[in-house]
Amino acid sequence: MQVDLREHWRFLTSYLRKPDVVGAIAPSSQALAAALCEPYRRFRGPAKVLEVGAGTGAVTRHLGSLLGEEDELDICEIHTDFADILEHDILNGAGFVRSVAAGRVRLLRSPVQQLRYENRYDFVISGLPLTAFELCDVQDVFGIVRRSLKPGGVFSYFEYVGLRKTSWLLSMGRRRHRIRSVSAYLSRNIRQYQFDRTTVFQNLPPAHARYLRFR
Question: What pTM was computed for the model?
Answer without folding.
Answer: 0.86
